[in-house]
Task: inverse folding
């Protein structure tokens, strides 16, 4: 359950929130299970935050910092994660369907079991990310860098991979069959 004081601070805007984070570096924000659907959280420092099970559907999260944050089991369907930094973040089982992750950095993140249906990962850094059992369907991976990523047991169906750097041992892309 989210900390009500942390939710109130979140409402004060990015500048106030980020100043609070700077003044309280040892405090880990607890926003677990919070329904933040449709919020405008651009530029927020959410590094190391507990966002387990949070609803961030259709949120504007551009340029937010999720480094080492825990978003496990959350829902980010349709969220704008452009230019986000989420290095080392935990996103196990997160639904990122229809999300935009352009020019984002998810290096070394754990995204096992994620759903990335119809997501856009244009020029996204996915270096060393764990995507075991992740599901990609009609996902745009143009220019994405998956160097050192673990895609074991991942499902890649009808993805666009032009210019993407994929591991040699990545799963085959399954294409739709014309009937």
Result:
């Amino acid at each position: 359950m989210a900390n009500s004081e942390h939710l109130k601070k979140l409402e004060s805007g990015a500048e106030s929130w980020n100043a609070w984070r700077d003044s309280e570096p040892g405090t880990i924000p607890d926003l677990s299970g919070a329904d933040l659907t449709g919020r405008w959280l651009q530029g927020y420092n959410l590094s190391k935050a507990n966002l387990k099970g949070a609803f961030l559907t259709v949120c504007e999260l551009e340029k937010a910092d999720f480094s080492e944050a825990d978003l496990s089991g959350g829902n980010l369907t349709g969220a704008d994660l452009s230019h986000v930094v989420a290095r080392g973040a935990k996103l196990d089982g997160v639904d990122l369907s229809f999300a935009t992750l352009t020019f984002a950095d998810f290096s070394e993140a754990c995204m096992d079991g994620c759903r990335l249906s119809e997501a856009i990962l244009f020029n996204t850094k996915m270096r060393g990310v764990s995507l075991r059992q992740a599901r990609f369907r009609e996902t745009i991976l143009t220019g994405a860098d998956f160097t050192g990523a673990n895609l074991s047991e991942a499902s890649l169906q009808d993805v666009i991979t032009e210019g993407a750097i994929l591991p040699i041992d990545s799963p085959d892309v399954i294409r739709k069959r014309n009937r």
User: Anything to note?
Assistant: The chain has two helices and three strands.
